[in-house]
Design goal:
The protein contains 16 helices and no strands. The protein has helices spanning 2-22, 61-73, 77-84, 91-110, 122-130, 135-152, 158-177, 183-194, 199-212, 217-227, 235-247, 258-265, 280-295, 303-316, 320-330, 345-362. Helix 7 (158-177) runs antiparallel to helix 8, helix 10 runs parallel beside helix 12 and helix 13 (280-295) runs antiparallel to helix 14 (303-316).
């Protein structure tokens, strides 16, 4: 009899704990295949999960073409030409610098090299050796070092500090080669977080960026990490930074979406509040991001980043139609928050997409009623 009571208690406990565990950030129950709510993505023109591109948040065919050439030939010159022809103060150049650095870092991880074979990413080393005065190559090298520090070592260790200090020197060299370019200082924002710059030091660095590109969304997102509670600020400081950016955003700027990113960075690991995603703070941040998306240029390079995060919040707020409306603009690419925090970005995105479609259909929607 005692064993029976123990089993009953365990079953009851499972009913209490499972909903809590499923509310952890980034964890959401998947709709199983064959379930009535498991709509076929193809019915909506969506890409199959196995075909989703995890490299970028949205399309940039020029970048993909150049990456393919560089990685196939190990010749850096196509990358050099692409960066030279990309607006220095714009968002796209920052994204391309990150992409080239990430490609080199991934190559090195896959082929670390040895006695008889060449390490991956050799084209970046050749780029720096053959064109030491090229500002694009210097910026990519600095970002490469930053990514290597976060990828291969642990913050606070000697190895991490040594790589980050090398990255800081590389940022300085890149800045000297292009005095008006904000990119070296944007790269240094991650260095500042990793090396624990004081708030005064960080603000001095931030002013250099504001002087060069005051409405740069990528820079604001990089700076937001520093002010977050898990790094060197607090929830209030991060939200104040985001709200100030939104308040001074020029017309048509996606900076109005910054509070939504601040909310995301401070989501509770376990959410025990019923209706949290319908709360005033979250709803206000969602509306700010929706306004930003509506007002910004459709070809804004940061648009996809905002839309991806909106999908996450709109699904959790059970605003199905609005979530599907965002999906039709971004489907196919998943290299953005929040999916990149998952070990399986494509799978995580596909779960949210399936839930959005299921909710949309449960409320009378169908492929024919999709907005165009």
């Amino acid at each position: 009899m005692e064993i029976l009571w123990v089993l009953i208690a365990l079953v009851m406990l499972s009913f209490v704990l499972l909903p809590v565990l499923r509310r952890r950030r980034g964890m959401i129950e998947q709709v199983p295949a064959g379930h009535p709510d498991a709509a076929d993505p193809a019915d909506y023109g969506f890409v199959r999960e196995e075909e989703l591109d995890i490299r970028m948040p949205g399309p940039d065919q020029d970048l993909l073409d150049v990456l393919n050439v560089v990685q196939r030939t190990q010749d850096y010159r196509a990358a050099q030409q692409l960066l030279a022809g990309t607006e220095a103060e714009g968002e796209r150049r920052w994204q391309r610098v990150q992409a080239f650095a990430g490609a080199a870092a991934l190559e090195l991880h896959q082929r670390p090299g040895g006695v008889s074979d060449t390490p991956g990413g050799q084209w970046l080393r050749v780029w720096r050796a053959e064109a030491p005065e090229d500002a694009g190559g210097a910026a990519v090298h600095a970002e490469f070092l930053v990514q290597q520090a976060w990828r291969t070592s642990t913050p606070g260790t000697d190895d991490f500090r040594i790589i980050m200090e090398e990255a800081r020197d590389a940022c300085g060299q890149a800045a000297l080669l292009a005095p008006g370019d904000p990119i070296p200082y944007i790269v240094e924002l991650s260095v500042a977080r990793g090396l624990s710059y004081s708030q005064q030091e960080f603000e001095q660095l931030w002013l250099k960026i504001l002087d060069r590109a005051p409405a740069h969304m990528g820079a604001h997102l990089a700076a937001l990490h520093y002010w977050c509670e898990k790094w060197h600020g607090s929830r209030d400081q991060a939200m104040s930074f985001a709200e100030a950016a939104a308040a001074r955003a020029p017309q048509g700027s996606l900076l109005a979406a910054m509070p939504l990113f601040a909310v995301f960075e401070h989501l509770p690991e376990v959410n025990l509040v019923t209706g949290f995603y319908q709360s005033e703070v979250v709803t206000k941040a969602i509306h700010g991001a929706l306004f930003a998306v509506h007002a910004a240029r459709p070809d804004d390079p940061m648009m996809a980043h905002v839309r991806h995060l909106l999908v996450f919040f709109l699904v959790r707020a059970q605003r199905w139609s609005e979530a599907v409306n965002q999906l039709i603009h971004i489907d196919g690419h998943v290299g953005a928050l929040p999916w990149t925090l998952s070990a399986d970005p494509a799978g995580e995105f596909a779960v949210y997409r399936a839930l959005a479609v299921a909710g949309y259909e449960a409320n009378g929607g169908n492929p024919a009623s999709l907005p165009h």
